[in-house]
């Protein structure tokens, strides 16, 4: 399988850290968060990776180059205007040769990529979506499923405390998904997935995950990695 890393966001909620850096280059302990993402994909057997870039794109491309130093082959797709999560994938359509995984460059997760890919190949649904239970799902998209794990509906990000399954923003797709993505700017959650109900199967990984969406989340994530470096292939002196 191949992978696409979404790396074009501005990370405005992490300011001032992202005033001079794109969010994918913000460091967790000693290296950019996107470096963890690439390392995890490579460890899971995925080395052919496209990266959609926008905000401070050159900084990301200068840092990672062709990806060889991390055991990957990186191909960049620069967006002159933001295209959204789905639009960015559509813009990279020429890269896709097979089923593929999509991950965010600005979230930290040690999901078992190989197991996720095996899960996707084990069923006939067009989309596999990683989800997790959150006791407080404010700020996240809620997902409802039937007893077999098929998505039946999506809910807006709740404003009040409510528990439930949330979309982690990690997907595995059949290549045919490209036909379901409109031209121009679009997002999976709002423009694509609602039209694919019944064809999205959920996957519940046992892993750490943080979208590093706010400064408190960022510092808590650093603390977790410092306490559990072995979960992220780190050796701290």
What would your notes on this structure say?
The chain is of the alpha/beta class. 23% of the residues lie in helices and 26% in strands. It has helices at 33-43, 57-64, 84-91, 113-121, 188-192, 215-227; strands spanning 2-7, 27-28, 31-32, 48-53, 73-78, 100-104, 108-109, 127-134, 142-145, 151-155, 164-173, 200-203, 209-210. The strands form three sheets. Strands 1, 4, 5, 6, 8, 9, 10, 11 and 12 form a nine-stranded mixed sheet that branches. A hairpin with a 5-residue loop joins strand 9 and strand 10 (151-155). The longest helix is centred in the last third of the chain and has 13 residues, at 215-227. The chain is globular and about 40 Å long. The termini are far apart. The model has no long low-confidence stretch (mean pLDDT 89).
State the gist of this model.
With 237 residues, the chain is an alpha/beta fold. The protein has six helices and 13 strands.
Please give a handful of descriptors for the protein shown:
alpha/beta; 237 residues; globular; 6 helices
């Amino acid at each position: 399988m191949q992978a696409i890393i979404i790396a074009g966001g501005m990370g405005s909620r992490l300011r001032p850290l992202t005033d001079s850096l794109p969010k994918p280059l913000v460091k967790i302990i000693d290296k950019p968060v996107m470096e963890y993402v690439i390392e995890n994909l490579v460890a899971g057997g995925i080395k052919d990776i496209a990266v959609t870039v926008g905000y401070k794109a050159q900084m990301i491309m200068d840092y990672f180059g062709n990806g060889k130093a991390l055991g990957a082959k990186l191909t960049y797709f620069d967006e002159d205007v933001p295209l959204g999560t789905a639009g960015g994938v559509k813009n990279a359509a020429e890269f896709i040769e097979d089923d593929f995984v999509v991950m965010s460059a600005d979230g930290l997760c040690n999901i078992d990529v190989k197991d996720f890919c095996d899960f996707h190949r084990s069923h006939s649904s067009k989309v596999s979506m990683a989800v997790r239970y959150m006791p407080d799902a404010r700020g996240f998209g809620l997902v409802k499923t039937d007893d077999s794990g098929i998505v039946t509906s999506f809910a807006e990000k709740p404003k009040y405390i409510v528990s439930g399954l949330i979309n982690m923003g990690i997907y595995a797709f059949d290549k045919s998904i490209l036909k379901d993505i409109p031209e121009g700017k679009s997002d999976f959650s709002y423009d694509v997935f609602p039209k694919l109900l019944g064809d999205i199967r959920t996957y519940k990984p046992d892993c750490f995950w943080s979208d590093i969406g706010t400064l408190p989340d960022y510092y808590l994530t650093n603390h977790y990695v410092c306490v559990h470096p072995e979960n992220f292939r780190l050796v701290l002196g």
